[in-house]
Amino acid sequence: MLLHQQRTHRLLPGSWKNKSREKTRIELLQQDQKMMEERNKRKKALLTKTIAEKSKQTQAESVKLKRIQKELQTLDNMVSNDICILRGVIEQTSWDYNTARKRYEKAESEYVTAKLDLHKKTEIKEQLTEHLCAIIQQNELRKAHKLEELLQQLHLQATEEEQEEERREEERKREERKREEEEERKREEEEERKREEEEERKQKSVMENQGEANVPSPPDTGSTPGIETETQAGSAMLQQDYPAVTGSDQDCKTANIPLAGQSEVEAPAS
């Protein structure tokens, strides 16, 4: 066998080399083919994987898109319901507004009419009041003339009555002055008492400060609450002795005030 091969090599050296070259080229081609196949397989696997991932992403985006569309549809439905409700409320509000505006216009017209009527009635009342005052004044003048005549006849009696009235007025004023002086004296005594108490507190504070240097002295507020209490008590007493006079009482008193020469006793009788 070996001899046969050696002979064959000896006989055909060029053909053997050609076969070796062809074999090497075929192996290279086969290797290149295998490498290309492997490369193509990897590319195909990568492409398949990419397509699968894209498909998953597309499906996820599709699901997300459907969910978003569903949410948008829900929002649109809610907005539509709200719009319908608001339109109904707006229509009712518009109707209420028109009704209220009509009532306002009617009330405004009635107010203007009532104001004009009040103005007319006020003028009539003022005219009647002036007329009444003129009548009362004329009556008072007539009574004054009549009373002057009577006073001339009863001058002595009127003089005694006036003196009695003046004496009563003086006694009343004297009592008022006494009461005011008493209140003033009480206020002064209260103030003096407060000042003495304040002085005692100050002296006590000074003594305490001398005994304990680190203890701060109480602040001197200088307030005298007793004075305000006494003043309020005096004001209440004055208001109790002299109550306020209302407008109607003042008018009545003005209407019954006797004129010059009219006595205190004769004025009410007239």
TrEMBL record:
Q: Which GO terms describe its cellular component?
A: Golgi apparatus
What InterPro entries does the database record attribute to this sequence? GORAB
Name where it's found. Cytoplasm; Golgi apparatus
- The answer to whether the entry has keyword Cytoplasm is yes
Question: What is an annotated GO biological process for this record, any one?
Answer: non-motile cilium assembly
Give coiled-coil spans as residue ranges.
Answer: 19-46, 90-117
Q: Where is the composition biased (Polar residues)?
A: 220-238
Q: Where is this region: Disordered?
A: 158-270
Q: Where is the composition biased (Basic and acidic residues)?
A: 165-205
Q: Which UniProt keywords apply?
A: Coiled coil, Cytoplasm, Golgi apparatus
User: What's this protein's family per the entry?
Assistant: Belongs to the GORAB family.
Name this polypeptide is given: RAB6-interacting golgin
Provide the taxonomic classification. Answer: Eukaryota, Metazoa, Chordata, Craniata, Vertebrata
Provide the gene name from the record: gorab
